[in-house]
Write a structure and sequence with these properties.
Blueprint (H helix, E strand, L loop, with lengths): L3 E4 L12 H25 L4 H30 L6 E3 L1 H16 L3 E7 L6 E3 L1 H18 L4 E12 L9 E10 L6 H4 L19 H11 L3 E6 L5 E8 L7
Parallel strand pairs: 3-5
Antiparallel strand pairs: 1-7, 2-4, 5-6, 6-8, 7-8
Helix pairs in contact: 1-2, 1-6, 3-4, 4-6
Amino acid sequence: MDITTVLSSPTDPFVGQPDMLMGGMAHDLDRMLAVIASGLVSIERGPNPQQLARIASGMKHAIRNAAALADDIADLSARSGVTTNRVSVEAVIQDMQPRVREILGESVDFRTEIARDLWPVRVFPDYLQFALSNLLANAADAMPRGGVLVLRANNTFRSTASRAGAAGDFVRLEMIDSGEGIPSDVLTRVFDPFFTTRQSLKRTGLGLGQARRFATQFGGDIAVESDPGAGTRVILHLPRAARGSF
């Protein structure tokens, strides 16, 4: 078994912003619009037919991604209670159950393994649900013929800081699929905005990037482990809410 692990980059232009996730999404949308604008400029210059086909393909891809991202932004903006709360991860997962089957389809066997006395975390609850929905969608893409997806949650403690993340008490969330796995050369790019190998499935390639911004905004981290042919594990750490906080 050759398991490769990739950690999310600690650098992001939106680190330190009050709302890193929404700021990053707005930036991604702006980048898509720039692709469309550049394509229009090229068309005005009168490209040859071969260039025109390539430009049109790039513009269509950018428009599709922009529309999907605009839907995500509108969805998050419309939700109430966008303030950090002492959140029960188990309750958030339970609230997601009606949407899980819609995201995964009928061919994926979804299982949860939630530790007893799971610590609360301090996040925007809707953002946590949004991040988990993105991870579910990524896992579904990895299992086009069906499979097993396990969402595991438990408490963990890091005694020292490392390249993986800060020290302290964390809730560890693992999304483990039985899919195709990710080749090592692709794994190093999974957090890159717009990177996806599954264009036909209408994904924007923003799922893991958005999950990374969510984790970083609230003091956590995310990593991906994969063994080609034997599935993928996404590991999300979120800091434990301070005792006595609300």
